[in-house]
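User: quick one, sequence for these tokens?
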């Protein structure tokens, strides 16, 4: 276990204003690291103050401009650094053009960062934020491990999942073909929730928000493999600090059904404040009816629902526990922390 920063150089965090990345920045600063964050518009990020106001930011945090769509954009950011944590990637389920809006920026952005890293002699390791989406896109009861790859997704089926799969595969192919001096570690988180340091709505939170605003009007037969964003951030930093870290790491704590989440919220008093779903569709008839209804949803939502309704999500997180030494937070407490935070930001539905 490290007792201080493993490098005197800045740790680069791409997409630093993102939901996961902002927690990585916060924890790096708490650990005494110097941090260099990349964003598309540093002026806007500074004006918002969510990152620059973090403890330690005045002395050890800097922002630089870099856009995934611009070749060479990360050259200056990674120069003279030893560690890069690459989190920047488009995250949206429903898009007009999956190739243009998801696949191209995810794949080209990853390669752009790795190209810049290869030009930096000081680089020792790149940690890439991939996703459980690169492991599977279906709740089929299979026990997913780091050896599994999502082979089902395409531009017409779960295109977001497809983009994450292609981006991670491109990173591993880069390492195999280029044999760079640095090594690569990949973090594969599943359904990430938790308190946010930035005001934008994290897409995974829309499911919890939907329980309060009528967008999820019934208790559907869905299982969510949940993990706290603070644990996801910690996993990235452990991957930097542990020289023996290698390969991919599934980062997920426990699975909860929608019914379990609704019952937790009811027991914790949220039902007295918001109209939580009460109609049960988590049965054979309900699944059949839900499949008919989701046919009218936008493609990304439709694909997700069709491939997860009535299914079982299973994963093995033992590699992360064993090699990174991570202990996961209690999922129920994370759900409640997330709800408190969503209410604080004003994201939940109309109160009763």
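Assistant:
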């Amino acid at each position: 276990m490290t007792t201080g920063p493993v490098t005197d150089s800045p740790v680069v965090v791409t997409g630093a204003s993102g939901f996961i990345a902002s927690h990585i920045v916060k924890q790096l600063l708490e650990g005494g690291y110097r941090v260099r964050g990349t964003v598309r518009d540093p002026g806007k990020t500074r004006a918002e103050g969510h990152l620059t106001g973090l403890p330690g930011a005045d002395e050890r945090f800097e922002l630089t401009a870099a856009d995934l769509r611009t070749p060479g954009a990360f050259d200056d950011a990674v120069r003279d650094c030893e560690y890069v944590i690459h989190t920047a990637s488009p995250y949206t389920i429903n898009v007009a053009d999956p190739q243009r809006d998801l696949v191209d920026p995810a794949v080209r952005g990853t390669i752009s960062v790795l190209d810049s890293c290869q030009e930096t002699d000081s680089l020792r390791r790149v940690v890439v934020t991939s996703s459980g989406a690169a492991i599977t896109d279906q709740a089929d009861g299979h026990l997913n491990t780091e050896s599994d790859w999502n082979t089902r997704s395409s531009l017409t089926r779960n295109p977001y999942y497809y983009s994450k799969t292609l981006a991670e595969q491109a990173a591993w192919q880069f390492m195999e073909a280029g044999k760079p001096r640095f090594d690569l570690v990949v973090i594969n988180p599943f359904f990430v929730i938790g308190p946010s340091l930035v005001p934008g709505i994290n897409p995974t939170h829309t499911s919890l928000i939907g329980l309060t605003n009528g967008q999820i009007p019934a208790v559907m037969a869905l299982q969510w493999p949940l993990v706290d964003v603070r644990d996801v951030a910690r996993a990235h930093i452990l991957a930097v600090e542990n020289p023996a870290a290698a390969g991919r790491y599934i980062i997920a704590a426990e699975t909860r059904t929608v019914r379990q989440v609704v019952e937790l919220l009811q027991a914790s008093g949220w039902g007295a404040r918001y109209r939580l779903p009460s109609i049960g569709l988590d049965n054979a008839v309900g699944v059949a009816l839900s499949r008919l209804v989701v046919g009218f949803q936008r493609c990304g939502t439709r694909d997700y629902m069709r491939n997860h309704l009535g299914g079982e999500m299973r994963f093995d997180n033992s590699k992360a526990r064993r090699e990174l030494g991570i202990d996961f937070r209690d999922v129920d407490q994370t759900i409640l922390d997330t709800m408190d935070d969503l209410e604080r930001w004003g994201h939940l539905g109309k109160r009763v």
